[in-house]
Structure formats: C-alpha cells, structure tokens
C-alpha cells in the first residue's frame, strides 16, 4: 500500500480551513506511540493528516495511523476537536484557522514491520508523561495541536481514574 498524496480529495470547512485528523495511539500497556516527523526525523509527532472526501473522519484517521506509523487497531472514539489558530489564512476576507483538527484514541493491536512511510519515519513508544514532554518541548507550531491532543487524552485518563 502506498500513501495517498495530493490534496484533490481533501476536506475543507465552509470557511476554508483544512480538516486534519489524527490519533493518539495507545499500546495495551498504556504507552503512547509517537512517530518521527517526515521533515525532521529527530522531532516526534502523532500520526495525522488530511481528511479525505471518500472517507469518514474516523476512517481517514485510521488510514493516517497506518500510512505514517504502520499502526493497526481500533478507534476507542473521538477525543477532541479544535482550531489551530497558530496558523491562519484569509478566506473570503475573513481570517480563519488554516487547519481544524479532530483526534481519536486508537487502541493499537498491531504494528506492521513495513508500512507505506517506513523508509522516512521512525516510531517509538513512550510513557504518557514523557510523550507529553516530548511534544511540549518543541518550539514548532506544528506540534502545538499534537500537544493539545495528548493533553486532552491525559485529562480523560485522569478523569477515568478519579471515577
């Protein structure tokens, strides 16, 4: 399987923001799988990419997890939606977020040995707090939404523990 390329099937909001979907991949032992950025192998990120017209958002998120990290599993459910205000565009005379994000929690059941982007990316598992730290240490606007998704997951884990 090859990664999908191009943006001709990408989903955009009515205001012009690109819809980006991703997963917080959770191993059975609770560790979080991070993948290396395609542009910088020393920067860790969560699997994410553009939602596509021929898929639901959840299907797009599962596809991105496989393409970028070789991850297979089931989506536990939707985690969080938010606008990424760190990058904006002007659409019809109005400034809007360049991207809007939807993240899901994926319970990882299998990690493929070879996957579409395995030549360009590494992957590793980290305890939740270490994964949060790795994403918060980056001075990049591209990691801000990923950090927010991990924080939302961390909050959901804490709430579950408190109940």
Short recap of the structure:
This protein is α+β, with helices and mostly antiparallel strands and 163 residues long. The chain is built from three helices and seven strands; from the N terminus they run E-E-E-E-H-E-E-E-H-H.
- Beta-strand percentage range: 35-45%
Q: What is the total tally of β strands? A: 7
Seen as an oligomer or otherwise, the chain set is single chain
**Count of separate DSSP helical elements:** 3
Radius of gyration: 15 Å
What is the terminal separation in angstroms? 42 Å
Structural class: alpha+beta
Summarize the structure in words.
With 163 residues, this protein is α+β, with helices and mostly antiparallel strands. The protein has three helices and seven strands, in the order E-E-E-E-H-E-E-E-H-H. The strands form two sheets. The chain has a four-stranded mixed beta sheet with strand order 4-1-6-5, with helices on both faces. Strands 3-2-7 form a three-stranded antiparallel beta sheet. A hairpin with a 2-residue loop joins strand 5 and strand 6.
Provide the fold topology:
Blueprint: E1 18-26, E2 32-36, E3 44-45, E4 48-50, H1 57-69, E5 71-91, E6 94-111, E7 123-126, H2 128-136, H3 144-162
Helix pairs in contact: 2-3
Keywords:
four-stranded mixed beta sheet; three-stranded antiparallel beta sheet; alpha+beta; globular; 163 residues
């Amino acid at each position: 399987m090859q990664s999908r390329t191009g943006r001709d099937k990408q989903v955009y909001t009515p205001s012009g923001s690109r819809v980006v979907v991703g997963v917080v991949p959770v191993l059975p032992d609770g560790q979080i799988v991070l993948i290396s950025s395609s542009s910088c192998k020393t920067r860790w990120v969560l699997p994410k990419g553009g939602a596509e017209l021929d898929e639901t958002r959840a299907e797009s998120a599962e596809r991105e997890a496989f393409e970028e990290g070789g991850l297979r599993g089931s989506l536990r459910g939707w985690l969080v939606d938010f606008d990424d205000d760190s990058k904006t565009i002007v659409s019809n005379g109005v400034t809007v977020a360049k991207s809007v994000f939807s993240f899901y929690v994926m319970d990882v059941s299998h990690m493929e040995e070879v996957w579409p982007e395995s030549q360009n990316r590494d992957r590793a598992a980290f305890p939740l707090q270490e994964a949060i730290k790795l994403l918060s240490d980056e001075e990049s606007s591209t990691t801000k939404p990923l950090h927010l998704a991990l924080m939302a997951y961390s909050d959901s884990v804490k709430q579950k523990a408190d109940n």
